[in-house]
Amino acid sequence: MKTSAILGAVLYAGAAALGMTAQAADPVTITIWCQDDERQPGLNLAKEFGEKNPDIKVVYRQIHFDDVTSEAMRAYSTGQAPDIIAIDNPEHALFASHGVFLDLTDRIAKSAVIHKEDYFPGPLASVTWDSKLYGVPKATNTIALYYNADMFKAKGLDPDKPPQTWDELVDAARKLNDPAKNVYGIAFSAKASEEGTFQFLPWAQMTGGGFDKINTDGAVRALTIWKTLLDEKLASPDTLTRGQWDSTGTFNSGNAAMVISGPWELNRMSQEAKFDWRVALMPVPEVGAPRSSAMGDFNWAVFKSTKHPDEAFKALEYFVSQDPRVFPDWGQLAARANIDIPSTGDAKKDAAVKVFMEQLKYAQPRGPHPDWMKISKAIQDAIQSALAGQATPKDALDQAAETIKGILG
Amino acid sequence: MRRLFSSLVDGRGFDLCLIGVPLAFLIVLSGVPLVYNVVMSFQAVDMFSLGSFIRPWVGFDNYRQLIAQPEFWPIMGQTATFLAASIAGQFLLGFALALFFWLNFPGASWLRGLFLVSWVMPGLVVGAVWNWLLSGDFGVFNFVLHELHIISGNVFWRSDPNFALWSVVIANVWLGTSFNMILLSVGLSSIPGDLYEAAELDGAGAFTRFWTITLPMMRSTIGALISLGLIFTLQQFDLFAAITSGGPNNSSNVAQYWAWDLSFKQYDFAKGAAISVIMIIVVMLASVYYVRSTRHEVRG
């Protein structure tokens, strides 16, 4: 008696479940994976897209930054990939080159919303593989030089003339350095992670180097300057193990006079920093040398395995159409040059954003290369062994170049 | 039928069930992943072939390439240092604390319980806290050492290649001491008190009693503890991620962190698996030694 009751319950539950799936199969379901929470664009835009399109059911899954790539790979290899993913830009090529992402070139060419020419060259290059477009830049960021204008004045430097060249930068760091007051001349990050590569690569690029020619004379000079900053204690020795966020924290608290970091700091800095902070373009090797900077942030991409490419692309079009809101609502910078940045009511912040928008024109992607993480590791190892004094900058970069040559084949 | 049933309820069948259930559990949750890992270390694993089991066989190539990397031997050496220093530190401090609380002063059991708080904390949290404590410019650890006149300038625990590994050792010793203490306390309380009384009557001093009664009676506890310590220490990964990320320049990198870095940062899953296999062999050798060295004991 009891058994049949349980059996009956199970059958009923099964039937109910079947009925539910039959109903749910009706609207098209689009799955979106992204690391954004409710204070960031991804989640909000996905929700809005679902509300505006009752015939499309949007399933949003928030994935922690560190897990995005490995989760995506696992899901793809077991046939459970989402329709849309937000992926960190240096990882984009890995997926694009393996034919995992949908080629969007033709759709973008026909689109009334997404225009290739709107984008900054750096972010656009990161979604491009083999001259085809495999995604759309979601947002972008770069690094520039923050400086404490009050400290500049106190040390007799002109706060309206921030350092323009590397030599001026080292010079300013020497003058601003004040161990008695626990003030370092400059802060940056040379951590053994992607952050270290992110900060160093622009220096190499400004001298004509790059990940594929990392041991040029200019790159060696750049690393030598980094080493000078550490050897003379113009930057904290913890630069080697500290990320950009923590390094900038020391600037905000007045323990460093300058810091190299990105626009993601703007909100925190305008709340925490109780001094006149300003932003300048990254100093260049010498006057007139080409500019460069790092390029960060995520891209949208559609998995090739999607059953609803049209709806997925429609979602991307909606996201792109909302690009003008990305800065005012969520404090991120759209990867497009044709978007006006409205005033935030904070003069320091407004001035800083202008500098970052200028710096973005020179931002270059890391790679793109499918084995980017291995290349990056070689660069990190070179930075770290040189700064820790275990190899000369030249030897360290030669070693990295050798390793990278093996990876590039 | 009836015999089978009665054997299942009370007999050989019941015994087999008791063994079979945990055995099946172990095979599914440990054995299969273990074998999978070993197989993977002999294959060329592309990140997009992660889901399939059949992949090109490359023999010992992964191992050969791994050993040829310049950081291989330094990392193995650091792993050994980390193991030895962590286990020794945790055990000695834990033993000292256990003996201290064994004195049974008022509130001893309370305090002993409170000590466990450190062990209950997740490794990443412990790592983040020690990350601040050990920070060079404004770390509390440096401040304390400075006030005690042990150091004159700041020591950059995380960023100086000479200290980076030790900064993780310090955090790990702090994390594991209380667990050692609790297990050793249990071992201590199981030693019959009359042994000590008899020894005292025979005129044995405190040191002799410790050397001839406490230590020998604790032998199996200590053996088990050190084997567990070996396993826990080889699993210790969070602290590295939170404090040094293996840097600077791999000077605080150890096998377990390297395996993770290779697999999930550089997506070289095969080499990551190869390191894991090397680690499995080390642990197996250690456990064989442990089992053999305690085999003659009758435990009860």
Low-confidence stretches of chain A: 1-24
Give the overall average pLDDT of chain B.
88
* Helix proportion of chain B: over 70%
The rounded distance between the terminal residues' Cα atoms of chain A is 72 Å
The CATH topology assignment of chain B is MetI-like fold
In CATH terms, what is the architecture of the largest domain in chain A? 3-Layer(aba) Sandwich
Note the run of SSEs of chain A as H and E: HEHEHEHHHEEEEHHHHHEHEEHHHHH
CATH class (first level) name of chain B: Mainly Alpha
- Helices and strands of chain B, in order, run as HHHHHHHHHHHHHHH
Task: Give the SSE map.
The complex is a heterodimer of chains A (409) and B (300).
Chain A: H1 2-24, E1 28-34, H2 41-52, E2 56-62, H3 68-77, E3 84-88, H4 89-97, H5 105-110, H6 121-127, E4 128-129, E5 132-133, E6 136-137, E7 144-148, H7 149-154, H8 166-176, H9 194-206, H10 217-231, H11 244-252, E8 258-261, H12 266-272, E9 277-280, E10 298-302, H13 309-321, H14 323-330, H15 347-360, H16 372-387, H17 393-408
Chain B: H1 2-9, H2 12-40, H3 61-68, H4 72-102, H5 108-115, H6 117-120, H7 123-133, H8 140-147, H9 164-189, H10 193-201, H11 206-217, H12 219-235, H13 238-243, H14 255-265, H15 269-293
Helix pairs in contact in B: 1-2, 3-15, 4-9, 4-12, 7-9, 9-12, 12-15, 14-15
